Amino acid sequence: MQNILNAGFVQGMVKVTSDMWLKGWDERNGGNVSLRLLPEEVSAFRADFYPEPRCIELSQPVPALAGDWFIVTGSGKFFRNVQLDPADCLALLQVDDSGLAYKIHWGLCHGGLPTSELAAHFQSHSVRKQLSQGADRVIMHCHATHFMALSYVVNLDPARFTRLLWEGSTECLVVFPEGVGILPWMVPGTDAIGQATADAMTKHSLVMWPFHGVFGAGPTLDETFGLIDTAEKASEVVVKVLSMGGIRQSITTEQLMELAERFDVRPWQAALQAERSDVA
């Protein structure tokens, strides 16, 4: 009999939360991850489900996710502890057929609820599922250090900020050619920030929450982690360059266009035409 603790989706969550904590992106209970699962990925582990799953109403309906399965991090759970007790730190849940509630079928074995940002995750999942024809299955939020630090010192125009990161590392334009969306500062854990993030996710797979962190979307845990890691590496380079006196030379617009052609990506034109977002 298969044990759900050995399931690929549980082990994947264990690995990515450990990697994020080791990166320093998820202090204490900071950050949250959700992975949309296919029914066939879940069905083999029904023997481990709770006989009477808890049913919880959603604050916002998600008809686009009706019937969908997810594994998510728990509210108040420390990422450094997921590897020690995934059954306490993670939750396997299914949205009901109306999209108005969900049931917890496994996990959170000592009680508790899924991440307080579940509404934001579900709103973004709804958008990315439709936009990618079902390919995007991960929403990931963390407090990437240098990415967050830049929000304090640079102009927060999305196109100009994107241009800054594209110039911060050659691979950035290839990894996120659609650029970075930026929200105004908003209270986390609310439907309002969830809707604003979902709106930005219609155009960008990376969204900055200024003075807080980043939301990323992608098809797999590895791809989404890599997306954020790439933006964070470029941010670290930019932070160090600014601390050494500022940018003297960088990748030109013509070179960015050559890069896009070589790797067959379509860069966000507003960012391609923008001046980089230097220190305000």
TrEMBL record:
<dbReference type="InterPro" id="IPR050197">
    <property type="entry name" value="Aldolase_class_II_sugar_metab"/>
</dbReference>
<comment type="pathway">
    <text>Carbohydrate degradation; L-rhamnose degradation; glycerone phosphate from L-rhamnose: step 3/3.</text>
</comment>
<dbReference type="InterPro" id="IPR013447">
    <property type="entry name" value="Rhamnulose-1-P_Aldolase"/>
</dbReference>
<feature type="active site">
    <location>
        <position position="117"/>
    </location>
</feature>
<dbReference type="GO" id="GO:0046872">
    <property type="term" value="F:metal ion binding"/>
</dbReference>
<feature type="binding site">
    <location>
        <position position="141"/>
    </location>
    <ligand>
        <name>Zn(2+)</name>
    </ligand>
</feature>
<dbReference type="GO" id="GO:0005829">
    <property type="term" value="C:cytosol"/>
</dbReference>
<protein>
    <recommendedName>
        <fullName>Rhamnulose-1-phosphate aldolase</fullName>
        <ecNumber>4.1.2.19</ecNumber>
    </recommendedName>
</protein>
<comment type="subunit">
    <text>Homotetramer.</text>
</comment>
<dbReference type="GO" id="GO:0019301">
    <property type="term" value="P:rhamnose catabolic process"/>
</dbReference>
<keyword id="KW-0684">Rhamnose metabolism</keyword>
<dbReference type="Pfam" id="PF00596">
    <property type="entry name" value="Aldolase_II"/>
</dbReference>
<feature type="binding site">
    <location>
        <position position="143"/>
    </location>
    <ligand>
        <name>Zn(2+)</name>
    </ligand>
</feature>
<feature type="domain" description="Class II aldolase/adducin N-terminal">
    <location>
        <begin position="11"/>
        <end position="239"/>
    </location>
</feature>
<keyword id="KW-0963">Cytoplasm</keyword>
<dbReference type="GO" id="GO:0019323">
    <property type="term" value="P:pentose catabolic process"/>
</dbReference>
<comment type="function">
    <text>Catalyzes the reversible cleavage of L-rhamnulose-1-phosphate to dihydroxyacetone phosphate (DHAP) and L-lactaldehyde.</text>
</comment>
<keyword id="KW-0456">Lyase</keyword>
<dbReference type="InterPro" id="IPR036409">
    <property type="entry name" value="Aldolase_II/adducin_N_sf"/>
</dbReference>
<feature type="binding site">
    <location>
        <position position="212"/>
    </location>
    <ligand>
        <name>Zn(2+)</name>
    </ligand>
</feature>
<comment type="similarity">
    <text>Belongs to the aldolase class II family. RhaD subfamily.</text>
</comment>
<keyword id="KW-0479">Metal-binding</keyword>
<dbReference type="GO" id="GO:0008994">
    <property type="term" value="F:rhamnulose-1-phosphate aldolase activity"/>
</dbReference>
<dbReference type="InterPro" id="IPR001303">
    <property type="entry name" value="Aldolase_II/adducin_N"/>
</dbReference>
<keyword id="KW-0862">Zinc</keyword>
